[in-house]
# Entry
Amino acid sequence: MKKLILSILLLLTPIAHAAEPASALRSVRVTADVAANNSTATSLDLVFVYDKTAIATLPKSGAEWFEKKAALLGGLGRQIDVVSLQVPPGVVIEQVALPAQARRAVAVLCFVNFIDPAGQAVANLTRYRHAEIHLFESRVAYKDLPH
# Structure
């Protein structure tokens, strides 16, 4: 009986591990209107998180992320990858280069350093497959594009 229970547990262990969420994100497109961020270049970071415990340590706003970015990168090390972009107004980035292990991420967050507080909220892109980030004059919009 013990062997049977042990066999069942061993069979279920890989299933439980495989069920852990991973990012669906395969592509990111960024569009900046001519008046985006009050007509100034916008810093935008995509943060790929590989350890669930690291999520709780991340800031709740773009302004806080950029203020604490150096310390967070030093403290979290290999638990995250960051893709940093500087997006001028009126520019479209058709395909943002994603980290090699992006599909392993348990969370993908977008931090934008916007002048207007309405554009500083953190976006969770984990369940998006083909994300579009659209920078407007005083806000940011996110949508999942059909592909």
In short: The radius of gyration is 18 Å. The longest helix spans residues 2-18. The CA atoms of residues 82 and 117 lie 22 Å apart. Confidence is low (pLDDT under 50) at residues 2-19.
